[in-house]
Amino acid sequence: MKNLISTLFLSIIVMIGVVFSSCQSKVKDKASDKAQNTENIIADTQNDSVIAQQDTITAYQEFVKESEKRMDAYEKEIADLKLKIEKKNKADKSKYEEKFAQLEQKRDTLKTKVIDYKNKQMDGFYEKQVEFKKDLDDLGSAIANFFVKEE
User: Fold this and answer.
1) Are 83 and 148 in contact (CB under 8 A)?
2) Of 79, 65, 67, residue with least CA distance to 143
3) Backbone phi and psi for residue 87, each to the nearest 5 degrees, phi listed first
4) What pLDDT was estimated at residue 151?
5) Nearest to 95 by CA among 108, 84, 85
6) In whole angstroms, how far apart are CA 107 and each of 2, 20, 119?
7) Cα 149 to Cα 11, 110, 143, 146, distances in angstroms
8) Going residue by residue through the chain (151 aa), what tens digit of pLDDT does each one get?
9) Which terminus of the chain has a smaller tally of CB atoms within 10 A, N or C?
10) Concatenated DSSP letters for 11-71?
11) Which candidate, 131, 73, 62, 84, places its Cα nearest to that of 107?
12) Exposure string over 60-71, b if 16+ CB within 10 A, otherwise e
């Protein structure tokens, strides 16, 4: 009887050990799965961040190229305006020269901005891009309307 109780007790302990180690293995597996999932999420987030950064850099570079092209076109138009002013009579010439000086100042300011944009990444790029494009549009309008009489 004593032997039977000992055997039964030992069997129960072995069964508890097996169940416990089985549970512990499942907990380790779940923890390992969670750790792997977390690593995957981190890797995906890093990849997304790199892609977003590359997209921003590409957009920034395209913005700079587009701005330089527009500035080059405006340079040619401003040179044409200067030639037209030279052909005007003396009274009109002085009026247009003052207006032309303001136009050149706008152009120089925008050229400086383009150089700054080209030489370094700017914080708040998208907001500055909108503002700069508006300034370029304003310069284009000023060039197009240069000889329009003001009332």
Assistant:
1) no
2) 79
3) -85, -10
4) 47
5) 85
6) 105, 79, 18
7) 107, 25, 13, 8
8) 667 677 766 677 777 766 666 666 666 667 677 777 777 777 777 777 778 777 777 888 888 888 889 989 989 988 988 888 888 888 778 888 888 888 899 989 988 888 887 777 667 777 888 888 898 899 888 888 887 765 4
9) C
10) HHHHHHHHHHHHHHHHHHHHHHHHHHHHHHHHHHHHHHHHHHHHHHHHHHHHHHHHHHHHH
11) 73
12) beebbeebeebb
Token pair 């708040």 is found at 124
The token duo for 115 is 């150089």
- Which residue in the block uniquely carries the two structure tokens 């987030």? 45
Residue 129, H or E segment: helix 125-144
Query: CA 32 to CA 37: how far, in whole Å?
Result: 9
Determine if residue 64 is left, alpha or beta; phi over 0 gives left, psi from -120 to 50 gives alpha, anything else beta.
Answer: alpha
Report how far residue 80's alpha carbon sits from residue 96's, in angstroms, rounded to the nearest whole number.
13
For residues 25, 30, 34, 37, the Cα torsion angle rounded to the nearest 10 degrees is: 100
